[in-house]
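Please, structure for the following, as C-alpha cells.
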Amino acid sequence: MKKKDIVIVSQHPAFSGLLADALQDNYRLVSFDNIRLALDYIYNAIPGLLIIDIAGGDPFTTNILNTLKSDPIFNQLPVLAALEDAGEIPRWDSLLVEDYILKGDLEREGLARVDLCIVRSERVVEVNPLTKLPGNISINRQIQQRIDRGDVFALAYGDLDNFKPFNDHYGFTRGDEVIKAAGRLILNIVKNKQPAGGFVGHIGGDDFIYIMDLGLVKEVSSEIILAFDSIMPTFYDPEDRERGYIQTKDRQGNEKRFPVVSLSIGIAHNRHISFSHYGEFTEVASEMKRHAKLHGGSCYRIDKRQGSRRTS
C-alpha cells in the first residue's frame, strides 16, 4: 500500500531527524525549514498530516498556520503540534491544531500519536481519498452557508469528457493520475487567483466543483482549461498522442475513436437569480455543464439569464 505523506515543518534538523527515525518506515516524509516554504507543497499534494514545530509561540508560524486552517479547503488537514517540554501550553482557540505532543515524548510516542492523529482524521473528516479534496458533504455545506449569508458568488462544475474510454484503454492507475492532476490544477489556479474565500471540492469520479467570486470565475475557468489542455496529452502513449485519439470500444461494445480527454465547465451564479437551497444552485451549474459538453473540446458556459430559469 502506498505510504501516506507527512509534511514536517521545523528549523531544527535534530527534530526532523528524530521524526524520520520514528516514522520513515511507515510514512513518506517531506521536511521544510518554515511553513511558508511548505505551502506550495501542501497546495499541490494535500498531505495526510502536517507536523509543525511550535517554538516559543512563534507568532509567524502560528499566524500562517491559522490562516491555512481557516481556509475551507484546508481546514480538514490534520495538524500535530510539537511543543517544548517546559513550554507553556497554548490556548487552543488561538492555535488551530488537532493534537499536540511534547518533544520529549517523540521517541517513545511519536509513531503512535501520528498513527492515531491520521486514523482519527479519516474517521471524522469527509474528503475524497484520491485527491484529498473536500467531498459532497463539505461542498453542499459551503454552498448553503454562502446562500444563507447572502453572498453573491459563482459555482463552477467541471467534468472530464471522454474519460471513461481513456480509463478503459489505459487502466485505472493512469486514470487516477489524470484525476489527481486535474484536482491539483484546479486547486492551484483557484487558490492563486483567490487566496481567501475560494473553495475546491471533488464530487467524485471525474467531477469537480469550485466556488469563487463572480468577477474572477471566467478568467479562472479559461486558465484552468488552457492548463488542462496543455497537460492532458502527456498522459497518452506517444502514438495515440500523435494521432490525437485512442481507438477502443464504446458502451455498446462497438469500436470507436475517442479524442483526447477534455474539460467541460458549467458556471452558475446568483447575481440575478435568488437561490434558497444548494440543490437549486448545483442544478443550474449542472445544466450549464451539459451545454458546455455540446461544444466539443474543453470550454465553459456561464448562466446569462436575468432572473429566469429558462435556457436561452
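The longest helix spans residues 172-193. The mean pLDDT is 90.
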